[in-house]
Amino acid sequence: MDFIQALILSLVEGISEFLPISSTGHLVLASEVLKIPQSEFVKSFEIIIQLGAILSVLFLYGKRLLVSPETLKRVLIAFIPTAIVGLTLYKLIKTMLLGNITVTILALFIGGIVMIILEKIYTEQPKHLDKIENLSYTNAFLIGIVQSISIIPGVSRAAATIMGGMFLGLKRVTATEFSFLLAIPTMFAATGLDLVKNYQVLLDSDLIILAVGFIGSFITALFTVKFLIKYVSNHSFIAFGVYRIILSIIFFLFFTG
């Protein structure tokens, strides 16, 4: 991986991590376009640059977790299912799922259809919650279960948590913010686990490449998070569903077979 490839991947990560379009899926597809072999370093690089993206959320929302213990409790409860699934299936995720372009394309396509259907069904009502601290512990845990499906590349952690939150009683903007907050422990855990298991690969790597990925994803994610909150205040997620379907078809036609 060279400097330009690392920069491109970091921008893809920063843009796609918090949008409901699957950052992992986009990184897999971007690597395919850039002809980057799926080595152990590349797989670890793709996970570790998520740290730059998540620090942007910590920068924007960290104070909220500190001043609202009730919000923090619900975030941690929602994190539990993903932690269990991630630890249990870590080897499967790294060896069978990450880098699998067929799985990614299929998940993008199906996820796009599901997102459009759910948005057609969903109608925001006054009873829907506009404060995360009013979410029940049970529903927080259920959102975490839905998030755990996103271990499949192409599903999208953001899409899973946002859609899950909306149908478990949160308003669209609130579900989006909860997705941002839930990303903090989820992505820190994923990055930390990967560091522990693959530290030797990283020690032998070009630190400049890692720094480029970190900084690029951090800056890009800052703008993406702010954009998404403004967008969902007045729009549904149907456009993202359509985008996922179109993208999956394009990659199926040109990069498989």
Brief description of this entry?
The chain is mostly helical and 257 residues long. The protein has helices at 3-16, 23-33, 40-67, 69-88, 90-97, 101-121, 137-148, 157-167, 172-203, 207-232, 238-255. The protein has eleven helices and no strands.
Explain the overall architecture:
The protein has one domain (3-255). The longest helix has 32 residues, at 172-203. The protein is built from eleven helices and no strands. α2 packs across α6, α4 runs parallel beside α7 and α9 packs antiparallel against α10. The chain is 78% helix and 0% strand. 45% of the residues are buried. It is mainly alpha-helical and 257 residues long. The protein is globular, with a radius of gyration of 17 Å. The mean pLDDT is 87.
